[in-house]
Structure of 4-hydroxy-tetrahydrodipicolinate reductase:
Amino acid sequence: MTDLPGIVVTGASGRMGRMLIAAVAASGKARLVGALEREGHAWVGQDAGVAMGGAPIGVLVTDDPLEAFAKAQAVIDFTAPDATVGFAALAAQARAVHVIGTTGLEPAHLAKIAAAARHAVIVRAGNMSLGVNLLTQLTQRVAAALDADWDIEIVEAHHNRKVDAPSGTALMLGEAAAAGRGVDLAAVSDRGRDGITGARERGHIGFAAIRGGDVVGEHDVIFAAAGERIVLRHIATDRAIFARGALRAALWGQDRIPGEYDMLDVLGI
Ligand SMILES: NC(=O)c1ccc[n+]([C@@H]2O[C@H](COP(=O)([O-])OP(=O)(O)OC[C@H]3O[C@@H](n4cnc5c(N)ncnc54)[C@H](O)[C@@H]3O)[C@@H](O)[C@H]2O)c1
Ligand SMILES: O=C(O)C1=N[C@H](C(=O)O)CCC1
C-alpha cells in the first residue's frame, strides 16, 4: 500500500475538496497524505474524515503547504487563483505533480504557473471531465467545418456560489471554437453584453453566464445560421466526474518530464 502515490488535496473543505478526498480514499490507486485549508479555517487541526462528518482517516487538515507537499507525489488543487499560484511554486520545489482545476486564472497567474512548470509537471484544465474534453474536440471540428455565416455562442450555467465568469469550461470551448476557425479568441470574444450593444459582429464568439441554485455545470455551444442551429451540450450532474479526472491526471503525471499539460494529454484524445 505504501508504494501508492501520496496525494495532498488543497481546499479540503470546498465543494471539490471533499469530493477529491473521497475519490482518493476510494480509489485504491493513491494514498491521501495531506489535506490543506487556509489559515484560520475551522477544519485546520481536525482529522479530515471527521471534519467531513465521517470516520477518522488519519490525516489532519493543515494550513502549512510546505509541510504537506514535502510528503506528496501529487497535489490536487481546486481553490482560488492567488492560492494556486503560490501552490504551483511550492509543488515545483517539492517536485510533486500539480493538478490545477482552479478557474478564473488571469494572464499574470498563468505566467507564474508556466514558470513553475519549467521545474515540475503541471496538469491544468478548466474542466477535468471526459465529456467536456471530448466536447472541446467536437467544437473545434464543427467550427472548422463552418464559416462565419454561423454565429458561435457559448452559454453556461452554474450554482450560485461560483465566483468567476465565463466558466473555465466556457473559455476552453471558446478556445476550441477559435482554433477551429483559425482565429485568436481574445480578438473575437464578446463577453457581458448589456444595453445598446449594436448588432452582433460577424465572426465573433459570444459568452453568456447563468448563475443559480445548485447547478453543477451546464454548457451549450450554439452554432446559429440563417434557418438552422446546431447545439452541442454537456450537462454535469455530479462533481465526481471532475474528481475522477483530477485523480487520473495526478497518476498520469508521475514520471513525466516537467512541463504544462492538459486533460487531452492525460486522456490521450
Ligand atoms: N477544472 C474543473 O474540472 C473544475 C471543476 C469544479 C470546480 N472547479 C474550480 O475549482 C475551484 C474551487 O471550486 P469549489 O466549488 O470547490 O469552491 P469552494 O469555494 O467550495 O472551495 C474552495 C476551497 O479552497 C479553499 N482555499 C482558498 N484559498 C486557500 C488557500 N490559500 N489555502 C488553502 N485552501 C484555500 C477555501 O477555503 C475553500 O474551502 C473554482 O475555481 C472552480 O471553478 C474546476
Ligand atoms: O463549480 C464550478 O465552479 C465549476 N467550475 C469549472 C468551470 O469554471 O468551468 C468546471 C465546472 C464546475
